[in-house]
Amino acid sequence: MTRAIRVLLVDDEPADRALASRALTNGLEQVVIEESDSRSSLLSLLNANDYDVIITDYMLRGLNGLEVIDLVHELNADAQIIMLTGTGTEEVAIEAMKRGVADYVIKNAHHINRLPATVTHVLDRVAAEKARQKAEEKRKECEARLAHAGRLSAVGEMAAELAHELAQPLCVIDGYTVAMLNHIENNNEPPKALAENLEEIRKASERAGKLVRRMREFCRKNKGQRVPFNMNQAVSESVDFLAF
After folding, report:
1. What's the alpha-carbon Rg for the chain, to the nearest Å?
2. Where do the domains of the chain lie, and which CATH numbers do they carry?
3. Per-residue pLDDT at 129
4. Got the DSSP string for 190-210?
5. Residue-level pLDDT at 210
6. Could you point out which of 5, 91, 211, 218 has its C-alpha 20 to 30 Å from the C-alpha of 144?
């Protein structure tokens, strides 16, 4: 079942409110209408309720339609505003639109009868925008998932290369370790030579650690960010990586 549209009519002329209310009731299938004729009642209703649409006259006692717009944005930000006026100028209409009015209707019998269509159009436009935003969020989410899936698929290809790259420093570590053990066993390795062997082991271990850290960084899932890119640094790092 479709939820009834909640409308607040703001007008200090009872006859005009009755005319607008009758047009809305006759033209909309499900609508709940409340009325305000002053600043105090407007504030009370905005503080107590949420509305889908607020239809306000431009000329009111104690405030004008532009002030109503500001109050609505402050207290019922999601409500769509339609302004009615029989005396508004083009400048007023432009200012109202700048402040977020959804539509602007001339206040006479002919145009009042078009209020239901105006309300429907405004709400359809809001629904379409929400759907667009939701679709955009979904698109970004799918792109992020696809990007991550692409990164994961590349991991398999890089794993073989990583194993090959790791084999070299690991062989160095193994070779120097065996040599040191043999020399220690034979007790004929001078301390300086042992220190040199240990330094080679440290370097090889460091190279292996860098390879592992780069693979982990590649596999980590994160949101893409636009950052300044240094092409020279990227080329230099790529050369260093291949040199391992």
Report:
1. 36
2. 5-113 (3.40.50.2300), 143-225+234-243 (1.10.287)
3. 87
4. -HHHHHHHHHHHHHHHHHHHH
5. 75
6. 211
